[in-house]
Amino acid sequence: MPHSGQIHKLGTYDVVVCGGGMAGVGAACAAARAGAHVLLVERLEVLGGLGTSGGVGNFCFGDETLPGGQGRVLDDIWDGLAAYRAIGEGHGWRVGRNPPFFNHTFDHNVLAIVLQELAEADGVELLFATDVIGADAQEGHVRSAILHNRSLCQRVEASIFVDATGDGILSRHAGAPVLPPDGDHPQSIPPSHMIYVQPSEDAGPQVVRRENPGEPVPQYSVWTEPDRVGLKMWWRDGGFDTSTGQGYSDAGRAFRRRIPEFVRHFQGTKQGQDSVFAYSASMLGLRDSVRVEGDYVLTADDLRSGRSFPDAVAHGCFPLDSAAITKEAMPPYQIPYGCLCVKSLTNVLVAGRCFSATRVALSSARIMVTCCLMGQAAGAAAAMACEERIPVRRVAPARVRRVLAAAASHDDVLRLRLGE
């Protein structure tokens, strides 16, 4: 690859957000609403990550506060889905109330439309089908991100970058340290995969051309939707290291080869006897990859104690949820700004699955609504740092909290959880 100075310059922005999942959308929209000139770079061809390409049409939390308390961007996403009749019991979308799991299903295909409409309305520039393949960083300051797409290599400059790739791609290219596995959780949180079946008058047994003797029996949860049923495939002991390229690839192959077997198993149940295979998600249900080391590392003990932080900018309360550990309900806990500040980098923030936390803590904080709120906090802070021309660490977390609470339509919940 040529030196970054020889690569065509795509443009200069106030804020560049890398990754267009729920964290990235939250960051990009929050920064743009604060007046920043924002580019959102996404490696897939739609926004939403697991919520769209991953087929995970389910907003979940650990209490009944949803949709309140997760910031204005999520409020607007929820309203957009409702406008399309793609969420809400009144439109046939199931709401699960089984403490400590509270679930709101939605149409993951429609979410992709809603997110793009929202980003465009906020003035966010979008660049799809583009990978982050490098970073030009000097003494901890990232000058540009190196991108690759059908135009080959390009570079984009920004005052502040937000790494919402889920894998810490930009941060790692810039030399940021990553966190080691937990001592009590050395293996990656097992992934899952979503497949969908639909009713058919001509349903017959699913053809299974390849048997898998010796592999775990099919395990899946059933997600009922108005016109189809989702099957969330998983098994406890896959042994996949999804933090590596090969491990991620192997996991995707392992799930895909067993789709016919899972469909036929579901057809053998009373609920699935008239079902046929419709489609599978294009993206693996990745729950854990690489976590970037920040100024503070959120721990499971922080979650269990419901710890408060003076620099809190987000919150969560979803249970610890990893197949390698026993599910455990969590009280409301705070996520400090220090978890979003990347160690050794001056103008990069992280949000979403790659934020600074132990693997066990991540098993709770990784859910979409919490990642979206983290993203909003990072985006608001990025806009402040850009406007004031200061390093991200000099942004006052209390000011970020006030901005988030003032914009939210359910500000009472957000203020209570953040201590405002």
Strand residues, percent: 15-25%
CATH H-tier superfamily of the largest domain: FAD/NAD(P)-binding domain
What is the chain-wise order of helices and strands? EHEEHEEHEEEEHEEEHHEHEEEHHHH
* Euclidean distance between termini CA atoms: 48 Å
**Overall radius of gyration:** 21 Å
Instruction: Give a quick account of the main beta sheet: strands, pairing sense, barrel closure.
Output: 7 strands, mixed
The CATH architecture of the largest domain is 3-Layer(bba) Sandwich
CATH class of the largest domain: Alpha Beta
Give a quick rundown of the structure.
By secondary structure, the protein is an alpha/beta fold.
